[in-house]
Amino acid sequence: MLRGFYTAANGMIAQQRQQEAFANNISNANTPGYKADQTTLRAFPEMLMNQMAGKELPIQNKTYVPIQQPIGSLNTGVYVQEMIPNFNQGDIQETGIPTDFALVQRNLPDETGALFFTVQNEAGDVRYTRNGNFTVDGAGFLVTNEGYYVLDVNGEPIATNDKDFTVTNDGLLQTANGAIPLGFAYAADANTMVKEGNDLYTGDVEAVPADATFSVKQGFLERSNVDTLQAMTQMMESYRLFETNQRVLKAYDQSMEKAVSEIGRLV
Predict the structure, then answer these.
(1) Which portions of the chain are predicted below pLDDT 50?
(2) What is the pLDDT of residue 187?
(3) In the prediction, which pLDDT does 249 show?
(4) How far apart are alpha carbons 115 and 36 in whole angstroms?
(5) 126 and 149 Cβ atoms separated by less than 8 Å
(6) Domain tally, the chain
(7) At 174, phi and psi to the nearest 5?
(8) CB 116 within 8 A of CB 128
(9) Inside any domain, residue 184
(10) Greatest alpha-carbon span in the chain
């Protein structure tokens, strides 16, 4: 019976973590470039149960031989193994703002691949983002809304000519002082990328392959790929499953109460 407590409790914890993921997706439905989190549930290892018994041998000393009779397997519940961002391309929305860039993927060499802008966080480390909602700071550098420098192909901050610049489809930022290639990174398996907050990712990346085709659209933004209606439906389903596990846990609690108070009193 105690094992049933753990199984029901594990189910509640798993559904709670799913609720958190769905709520976070819905809250970021309007965040440019946001990639929806997908949760993966996994069962705890199954246990093989056996009936322990003994068999008396027909000999003078009446020797007993232990035997095991398989009963079957027992599952001890589920848990959220990991959260994986969904890197499907979001819809492209026109904003008309020259500092907004949309990174449009066309043909990539890997089915699970994804392209990113490169930025520099507050610690000076290189990070990656799909959010092209940039701006120009007081010193004339292209930055994210959090103030992180957007990097060029050489990993250096990009100095713009105020906001008097254009960006070509192949990612060349052109100012009166010359042309600066934007820095891009490619993840062959985007599922391995880890979210750090503020629309930043870290993980194993490489230079953009020669056979990858993409374009940069100035004055546009990639919208979040969150399906709000689907996320709300999944949230309701998860809540119902949480309630079901909660009722099972309550039933076990009532059974334990009877075992302690009523059966114990009879003995």
Answers:
(1) none
(2) 94
(3) 83
(4) 16
(5) no
(6) 2
(7) -110, 125
(8) yes
(9) yes
(10) 106
Token representation of residue 209: 């392959």
Q: Which tokens belong to 40?
A: 């993966």
Kindly state whether residue 188 falls inside one of the protein's structural domains.
yes
Distance CA 185, CA 179 (A): 19
Are 190 and 104 in the same domain?
yes
Residues 122, 102, single domain; the answer is yes
Which residue type does 115 have?
L
3-class secondary-structure state, position 100: strand
Mark whether 156 and 251 lie in a shared domain: no
Q: pLDDT tens digit string along 69-123?
A: 776 666 677 878 778 888 999 999 999 999 999 999 989 999 889 999 999 999 9
Domain containing residue 237: 2-47+71-83+227-266
Residues 153, 126, 202, 25, CA torsion sign: negative
Cβ(28)–Cβ(255) below 8 Å: no
Q: What is the spatial distance between Cα 188 and Cα 206, in angstroms, rounded to a whole number?
A: 8
Element (DSSP H or E) covering residue 71: strand 64-74
- Residue 158: what residue type? I
Give the position of tokens 């420098």: 149
* Encoded tokens for 187: 């993840």
Burial category of 102 from C-beta neighbours within 10 Å (exposed 0-12, middle 13-18, buried 19 and up):
buried
Please report where in the chains the tokens 């994986």 appear, as a residue. Answer: 84
Which are the contacts of 60, defined by CB distance < 8 A and separation ≥ 6? none
Instruction: Determine the Cα–Cα distance for residues 129 and 185; give it in Å rounded to an integer.
Output: 9
60 falls within a domain:
no
